[in-house]
């Protein structure tokens, strides 16, 4: 929108200058440059004298040029002032900066919809310092996200173009938290078509929709109503456990979470035991379980001599920053952690 306004302003100014220069050429027989110079000093009202003596027809033309040209110039100045004062130019520059930051993202997460469910996903990603971008259509929500420094895109998450602008091909995972099951179904179908390796977690209301979402490519489907019911039972039967988890999730002093560390190709941990890896000596981190290979049973409270191979999943509980330090030591030495652009 702002570029259209600027383009229209430039078009009017160029049209006035071209019309004035051509008019002096035809009426007075001047060169185009002399006519252009006369037009500029006339419209700008700088008070210089005539470039060449004017005939009566030339003076009549100059009168009309002053009236029309000065009006257009004042209109252009007022429009440019309004753009600057109303912050439109600033918003455009911020949007361009945000778009460049999104283009640099890799191994990030995409949240489709700043809904009631999506809001919790956004907060968790922010607290755990995961790189992510939000797709939303509500202008007020987008404005709030931008003010908080959260990368966001204005668009329909069910379309190819919007998902591609969010870097779906480079993304690590996607959360589909739109309001209806039909919308989430389209998001999963579209995203999986663009990036078959993308891990997708979707929200669903109906059990029938859950099965459909899994069929079209969702790796996990979360049903908020079912989780709410289970939480109510837990509050009744295991209140101390629930209180502990609430304190862990809501602590403001430290961000404590249950995290998993997947041993990648080239990791210095491969071929070592759990004790030799050094993770058991890391402060603020406790190893809860191991999964030696995908599909194998969980090994809870694993002993020091538990072997580590490529693909082993180390499930930990602790302070997020400390867990990130362990994850960095587990990664190949040449790898660098991906961070959220400022």
The structure class reads: alpha/beta
CATH architecture of the largest domain, by name, is 3-Layer(aba) Sandwich
Could you give the distance between the termini? 26 Å
Give the quaternary arrangement of the chains.
single chain
Major beta sheet summary: 6 strands, parallel
Q: Gist?
A:
The protein is α/β, with parallel strands linked by helices and 342 residues long. It has 13 helices and 10 strands.
Throw out a few tags for this protein:
342 residues, alpha/beta, Helix Hairpins, Rossmann fold, Alpha-Beta Plaits, six-stranded parallel β-sheet, four-stranded antiparallel β-sheet, 13 helices, 10 strands, 14% strand, elongated, disordered C terminus
Structural commentary:
With 342 residues, the chain is an alpha/beta fold. It has three domains: 84 residues, Orthogonal Bundle (Helix Hairpins); 123 residues, Rossmann fold (3-Layer(aba) Sandwich), CATH 3.40.50; 77 residues, Regulator of K+ conductance, C-terminal domain (Alpha-Beta Plaits), CATH 3.30.70. The chain contains 13 helices and ten strands. Strands 3-2-1-4-5-6 form a six-stranded parallel β-sheet, sandwiched between helices. It has a four-stranded antiparallel β-sheet with strand order 7-10-8-9. The C terminus is likely disordered.
Indicate the topology.
Blueprint: H1 2-28, H2 32-43, H3 56-85, H4 88-104, E1 109-112, H5 116-127, E2 132-136, H6 139-147, E3 152-154, H7 160-165, E4 173-176, H8 181-194, E5 199-203, H9 207-216, E6 220-222, H10 224-237, H11 239-250, E7 256-262, H12 274-277, E8 285-291, E9 299-300, E10 313-319, H13 320-330
Parallel strand pairs: 1-2, 1-4, 2-3, 4-5, 5-6
Antiparallel strand pairs: 7-10, 8-9, 8-10
